[in-house]
Predict the 3D structure of the following.
Amino acid sequence: MNYENVIVAKDGAIAVVTLNRPQALNALSYGLVKDLSLAMQELDQDAEVRVIVVTGGDKVFAAGADIKEMADKGPFDPLILERLAYRDKINKISKPVVAAVIGFALGGGCELAMSCDIIVAAENARFGQPEVNLGIIPGSGGTQRLTHLLGKHRAMELVLTGDMLNANDAERLGLVNRVVPAELCLEEAVNIARKIAAKPQLAVRAAKEAVLKSANTGLDEGLEFERKAFYLLFASEDRSEGMQAFLEKRKAEFKGK
């Protein structure tokens, strides 16, 4: 299991997958999403592995999408379509997935954390969906999962303002399971994974499927709507301006076009 953008470590029934683009704050490029998806699918088929832990390392979970890669793309660009297809495969992993979130989990990073089954957050963790600042919206489940987890009004505020939640507020609102010191975050996630791995696995698989069935009622329809809106915004001038301003480190001038 050798990948360029993720590191996979197995210890008995536990596999830890670490996002490995530290020079780019683990920005979710096509290559990273592909490697993460393929690694998790391989682990899902590994009979020795019972629980998967996903982490970004000891500095940042994932600071969002790779804007340099996306800035010149149009609607329905093949690279974006393939990236989202790989992303969807991550959502369909049948084994329990625990996220250990240290530092920023923004945009696609927040969406990745939310798609995991349990989230352990470091005290310095920050969660948010700032896509509106780039002239787009979340495209990998952010509008839907935030609404299911936090309710309409909390989700609306985060998505429309692009503001961040600190770890304690995320725990209070039910976005994360627990908050621990950063140096203990991965250890705590692995401890939870070991506890789950010790349970009867047929029951664990059935329990996960049942919980997701309840949580995702109506989600598929929402995801379909979100995806269409996400694609169409790549045809807008505001999307182009938002991403170009980000790359040039200046304030964007949106025109509503």
Strands lie at 6-11, 14-19, 51-55, 97-101, 104-106, 118-122, 126-128, 164-166, 178-180. The first strand starts at residue 6 and ends at 11. The CA atoms of residues 34 and 86 lie 6 Å apart.
